[in-house]
Amino acid sequence: MTEADLCYTPATKLAALIRAKKLSPVELTRTVLERIERLNPRLNAFCTVTADSAMKGAREAEQAVMKKRKLGPIHGIPFSVKDLSFTAGVKTMGGSHIFADRVPEHDAPFVRRLKEAGGILIGKTTTPEFGWKALSGCPLTGDTHNPWKLGFNTGGSSSGAGAAAAAGLGPLHQGSDGAGSIRVPSSFCGVFGHKPSYGRIPQWPVSNNDYTTHNGPMTWTVGDSALMMSIMAGPDDWDRTSLDAAPADYLGKLNRGIKGLRVAWSPKLDGLRVDPEVAEVVKRAVGAFKETGAKVEEVTPGFADTHDMIRVMWCAHYAGAWGPYLPKWREKMDPAFVACIEDGMKVSVVDYIDARGKKLTHWDSVRPLFEKYDLLLTPSVSVPALPLGRINPEGWPQHPWDWLGWASFSYPFNFTGQPACSIPAGHTKAGLPVGLQIVGRRFADLTVLQAAAAFEKARPWQKKRPELD
């Protein structure tokens, strides 16, 4: 097996090989680390690599196998964590000079769970400053390149996780999503990413953005995301907003199919602008749901408009969280992020409460669709990957910081807290990936994953890889 073949092998298969003593955790971890060392200078997917501790963990994992100790579901499998999430003893910089030297004392709950399940932390993946945009690049750790086309964006804010999953830099990667930050990079990088129901995977510290941030998996296969979900999900006292429900059997029930489900298909949601090539790729992909036995109907939902709402709340939240740092750190911060914060400082309490009220009632415009349909299909993102350095695509309205227009398919479902994923639907003529979004009813993570697995079986994408080797 070549280096690339091993590094693209799903964790579901790697775990079985390790249990059967056909693969050494040391061999696997060393191979992944060597691939990171070789490719990361081109991609910048990892901002911190924990090679020494990972190899120490791999040797301990191998000893546990040889001594026939009880093994966790991802025993000896490498995983990465986005640089926004706390990791004990490992830098958590948040993509900012402000916290360039921060080393937390505690793991976030899902990090602790991945370790307890036998996973081996190999490093932290890049993010824009404090995850403020759906694009890669920040003053501290630089640009992250799309593995399918260097010089192009990975999307964000789970930038490095998307690039790492696409480039075979380990099988399991964690992302977070406050307005599309799992689904946008999954779409741009041609990988699978699942934004779970809000609170399904606990977070700590809890984000101060009014219950819109979701932690979730980003992987090369749907099965690996289901595996991660089974470990990461579940309530935790550190997060009082976490759902009081044990994980479902995401992996065991993954392949039960979606025959008979009622599926709504909306190519433009409520008249959103979509790149014609993206629209065509997604339209062809929707046919797979008919092939798998689902009942697909094209709809025009009539959801309440969310752009003005998120524009107010997005910049206001960042102003409240990071505005106090401007006097000291402005010159070392992302200039577009500074512009976002400054706009947020102009938002009045009255305007914010009005926007929050609209957010709360937004569910009443979304709910009727999901009373009739089990799933909603849309494009994940309006456009394919942008060239690095751009906030908005050429030919779209330009703005000092507001990138939200071309990500308008994603953030409505952060407001509602529903589960939603992005799955690879195909490529543009230029070879850039395009994602299809699958949105489920409240708390129906298993249904979304089952739909993704059915699509993956009907239209497998894993044989086509970025040309990096």
Explain this structure.
This protein is α/β, with parallel strands linked by helices and 469 residues long. The model has no long low-confidence stretch (mean pLDDT 97). A hairpin with a 2-residue loop joins strand 4 (145-146) and strand 5 (149-153). Helices cover 37% and strands 14% of the residues. The chain has one domain (3-458): Amidase signature (AS) enzymes (Alpha-Beta Complex), CATH 3.90.1300.
Layout of SSEs?
Elements: H1 3-7, H2 11-19, H3 25-43, E1 46-49, H4 51-66, E2 78-82, H5 109-116, E3 120-125, E4 145-146, E5 149-153, H6 159-167, E6 172-177, H7 183-189, E7 192-195, E8 214-219, H8 222-232, E9 262-265, H9 276-291, E10 295-298, H10 307-322, H11 326-329, H12 335-344, H13 349-372, E11 375-379, H14 412-416, E12 420-427, E13 433-440, H15 445-458
What is the CATH top level name? Alpha Beta
Residue-averaged pLDDT: 97
Given the helix and strand composition, which structural class is it?
alpha/beta
N-to-C series of helices and strands: HHHEHEHEEEHEHEEHEHEHHHHEHEEH
| Number of DSSP E strands | 13
* SS element count, helices: 15
The shape is globular
pLDDT below 50 for ≥5 consecutive residues: which ranges?
none
Spatial ordering of strands, largest sheet: 1-3-2-6-8-7-12-13-11-9-10
Distance between the termini: 14 Å
Q: CATH superfamily, called what?
A: Amidase signature (AS) domain
Largest sheet entry: 11 strands, mixed
CATH architecture: Alpha-Beta Complex
Radius of gyration from CA coordinates: 21 Å
CATH topology: Amidase signature (AS) enzymes
